[in-house]
UniProtKB/TrEMBL annotation:
Ranges for region Disordered: 1-34
DNA-binding region: 56-75
Gene3D superfamilies: Tetracycline Repressor, domain 2 (1.10.357.10)
Source organism phylogeny: Bacteria, Pseudomonadati, Pseudomonadota, Alphaproteobacteria, Sphingomonadales
Key word rRNA-binding present: no
Gene Ontology MF terms in the entry: DNA-binding transcription factor activity; transcription cis-regulatory region binding
Protein name per UniProt: TetR family transcriptional regulator
Length: 247
């Protein structure tokens, strides 16, 4: 996720002082950016083709038409290349700040729908990435998610939930950090089932949305309860309909 200041500037109507115009990149920087882009595209294609994030750097260099040392020079490690693929694939923050919703509680579900739309669009690719993430590889035990990325993601969701509390839709009996953690456990459980083939892609987002609504309904205020009741009805009907199709 990008800097949360983006959201603050948006909420204040963009009144922050304009940044000075950036100097156009030179020829050398443009060439470096082009090589970087080719490597990221090549890595994405290889992940899709092989279903594996443990890329061969030689195959990657050949596919990107660069020297063997270039991926290391530009990224530093194989894991950094895969992280770059993940960041390149997701324009989540830009799209998040363009969401149009009726209230802050609905924004929680709109953000959920947006996040899971990526999995629906390219399930094989994201299943591979999530498999690597859930394996918790690497010395920092964060898999494909850097500590900075994890912290930024948590900050966004805690902020979303905090807005719903501030606006009087939710009244949790514990901290927002604890609530975000519970919802994250729900998401990871569903994604693990999906990665293992026990959860259909078509109902993945709906299943998690139903879990969100069930969790939040237990702490809803009089203002939030009708919104969550509608969510429960919609998600439940969609899942029942999908189950009948499979029969």
């Amino acid at each position: 996720m990008s800097d949360p200041n983006t959201g603050r500037a948006a909420r204040t109507g963009g009144r922050d002082a304009p940044a000075p115009a950036a100097k156009p990149p030179g020829k050398r920087e443009r060439a470096k950016s082009e090589r970087r882009l080719r490597i990221v595209r090549a890595a994405r294609d290889l992940i899709r083709e092989t279903g594996d994030t443990d890329l061969s750097m030689r195959a990657l260099a050949e596919r990107a038409e660069v020297s063997l040392g270039t991926p290391y020079n530009l990224f530093g490690s194989k894991r950094a290349v895969v992280l770059a693929v993940l960041e390149d694939e997701r324009d989540f923050v830009d799209r998040f700040f363009q969401l149009k919703v009726d209230n802050s509680l609905e924004r929680v579900f709109a953000a959920h729908d947006l996040a899971f739309s990526y999995y629906l669009k390219d399930p094989d690719f994201y299943r591979t990435l999530w498999r690597a993430l859930l394996e918790r590889g690497g010395q920092d035990e964060t898999g494909l998610a850097s500590p900075e990325r994890l912290a930024q993601t948590r900050e966004i969701w805690i902020s979303l939930l905090g807005d719903a509390v501030r606006d009087g839709y939710l009244s949790p009996p514990f901290s927002l950090a604890r609530l975000e953690e519970v919802l994250e456990h729900l998401v990871r459980g569903a994604l693990l089932s999906w990665v293992m083939g026990n959860q259909q892609t078509e109902t993945l987002s709906t299943s998690v949305g139903l879990g969100y609504a069930l969790c939040l309904a237990g702490m809803a205020t009089d203002s939030g309860a009708p919104i969550l009741a509608r969510r429960l009805q919609v998600y439940g009907s969609e899942l029942d309909g999908a189950a009948h199709k499979d029969c």
